[in-house]
Amino acid sequence: MQIKNICCIGAGYVGGPTMAVIALKCPDIKVTVVDLNIDRIAAWNGPIENLPIYEPGLAQVVNKARGRNLFFSTEVDKAIDSAEMIFMAVNTPTKTEGEGAGMAADLRYVEACTKNIARVAKTDKIVIEKSTLPVRTAEKIKEILNKQGSSGVHFEILSNPEFLAEGTAIQDLFKSDRVLIGGDSSEKGQKAVQTLVNIYIKWIPKEKILTTNVWSSELSKLASNAMLAQRISSINSLSALCEKTRADIEELSKAIGMDHRIGPHFLKTSVGFGGSCFQKDILNLVYLCKFYGLHEVAEYWHQVIKINDYQKKRFAQKIIDHFSGDLNGKKIAILGWAFKVNTNDSRESPAIYVAEKLFKAGAIMEIYDPMVSKESVFSDISFYWEVSKIKDLKSRISVNDSLTTLDLSVDAAAILTEWDEFKNLDFSKTIVFDGRGVVSSSKYSIGKG
Ligand code: UDX
Ligand code: UDX
C-alpha cells in the first residue's frame, strides 16, 4: 500500500514530536496530527516559540515541516477518512475506578478512538498502537474495528511503541536504538509491517528496525520501562544504605557502571523517578502478572514502585527531620518542578510529592522551574494533592517566573530538577537538599560528589 496520508490521533508529548519527525523525513507524505483539545491544537499552529511542548530541537523540526506536509487539526473525522495509516497516541492513564483501579491501564480513550475509526473509515486502514498498552490490546482493537467498521473495509493492527524519552525526544527519534514493529503473521499483516518499515527506513538503519509479533512488541515496551525504572530503584535503595554508612552513592554508581556488563546509564540516584510512563507502565505490568496468577512476578516488579515511593518520602522526611519535625514558619525554596531536565512536563514529578509533604509540615514555599508555568504548578497541586481549596494555599505558596525574583534568603532549598541554572547558585547561607541524599551548606554545585 502506498502511504500518502498519515493521521495521528493525540497531539501530546508522544504524538507531536513523533509525527513532526516523520513529516520531516518523509516530505512526500502528508501528516495530520489531530486532537480533541482545541487549545493544544491552536498552540501547535501558533508561534513557533510557544509550542505546547518544550523539547530541545522540536521547534526547528516543526518550523521546517509545518504547513508543508505537517498539519495540526481538530478535524478528527476528516483526517481519519483520508489517511491510509492511523497512529493512536492518546493517553492511557492508570484506572481510577472499577476493576483494576490503581493499577490497570484505563483504555477508554483508546477505545473511543477505535470506535471513531470504525465509524468513519470507508477504505482500508493500517491502525498503529503508539500509546503504551497492555498486552493483547490489539486483539480488542481488532474486535471493535471488525464488529463496528463498515463491511468490506479491512483493518490491520500494528504495535509500534515509542521509546523516546522526554527532553531528548528529537535526538531519540532521529537516532533510535531500535524501532519496534509488531504485526500479524498473516500475509496482510506482514504487508502492513513492511509498509511501516518503509517509512522508518528513510532515516533509521535497517538493522535497527526490529519486527516481531504484536504481543512481543506490546510487552517489550512495558518490560523496557520496567527494567529502566528497576535500575533507578536499585541505585536509590542503595543511596539509603550509603547515607547510613560512609559510602558515597555517586562513587558507587561509577564503580558499578564501569562493569561493561552493567553499563553506566540509568544509575543516577535521585529523589525518585517521575514522568507519565514508568509508574503507570509498571503498575500495568504488575496488574497483568496478577491477572495471569503470577503473584511472585507481580510482587517483584511492584517493589520497584514501592522503593520509588520510599525514596520520595525519605527525601521529604529528611528535610522535615532537619527542622526537628516542625516546618511552621520555615521558608523552603523548591527548585525544579518538571519530572526531569529539559521538559515542561511535570506528570508524576517527585517535586509534587515532596512539596505536598513539606507544605503539610507547615512550610512556606517559593517554587520555581524555568519551564513549568505558575498555572501548571497550581493545576498539579489541585490534581495531585489532597487539598480542598487552592485559594487557601496561596498564602504559603508562591510560584516565581524567574530566578532573579526568587528570594534565596530561605531556611532551606530543595533541588528537585537538575536544571543547569541551579548549578551555580550561591547558597552559602542555606542548607541544600538534592537527589544525591547530600545535605550541603557550602556553595552548591551539582555533580560535586
Ligand atoms: C503518551 C503515550 O501515548 C502513552 O503511551 C504513554 O504511555 C504516556 O503518554 P502523551 O503523548 O505523553 O501520551 O500524552 P498526552 O500529552 O496526554 O497526549 C495525549 C493527547 O491525546 C492529548 O492531547 C489528548 O487531548 C488527546 N486525546 C485523548 C484525543 O485527541 N482524543 C482522545 O480521545 C483522548
Ligand atoms: C521513559 C523511557 O526512558 C522511554 O524510553 C519511554 O519511551 C518513556 O519513559 P521518560 O519518562 O521521558 O522516558 O524519561 P527518562 O529519561 O526515562 O526519566 C524518567 C525518570 O527517571 C525521570 O524522573 C528521571 O529523573 C529519572 N531518572 C533517570 C533517575 O532518577 N535516574 C537515572 O539514572 C535516570
Structure description:
There is one protein chain. The protein is α/β, with parallel strands linked by helices. Helices cover 42% and strands 13% of the residues. It contains 15 helices and 14 strands. The chain has a six-stranded parallel sheet with strand order 3-2-1-4-5-6, with helices on both faces. The chain has a six-stranded mixed sheet with strand order 11-10-9-12-13-14, covered by helices on one side. β9 (331-335), α13 (350-360) and β10 form a beta-alpha-beta unit. The longest helix is centred in the middle third of the chain and has 31 residues, at 214-244. It is globular and about 70 Å long. The model is unreliable at 445-449 (pLDDT under 50). The structure holds uridine-5'-diphosphate-xylopyranose (UDX) (2 copies). Residues 9-15, 35-37, 40, 89-92, 109, 112-113, 130-132, 276-277 line the site of one uridine-5'-diphosphate-xylopyranose. The site of one uridine-5'-diphosphate-xylopyranose has 19 residues, from α9.
Short description:
Helix content is 42%, strand content 13%. The protein is α/β, with parallel strands linked by helices and 449 residues long. The strands form 3 sheets. Strands 3-2-1-4-5-6 form a 6-stranded parallel beta sheet, sandwiched between helices. Strands 11-10-9-12-13-14 form a 6-stranded mixed beta sheet, covered by helices on one side. Strands 7-8 form a two-stranded parallel ribbon.
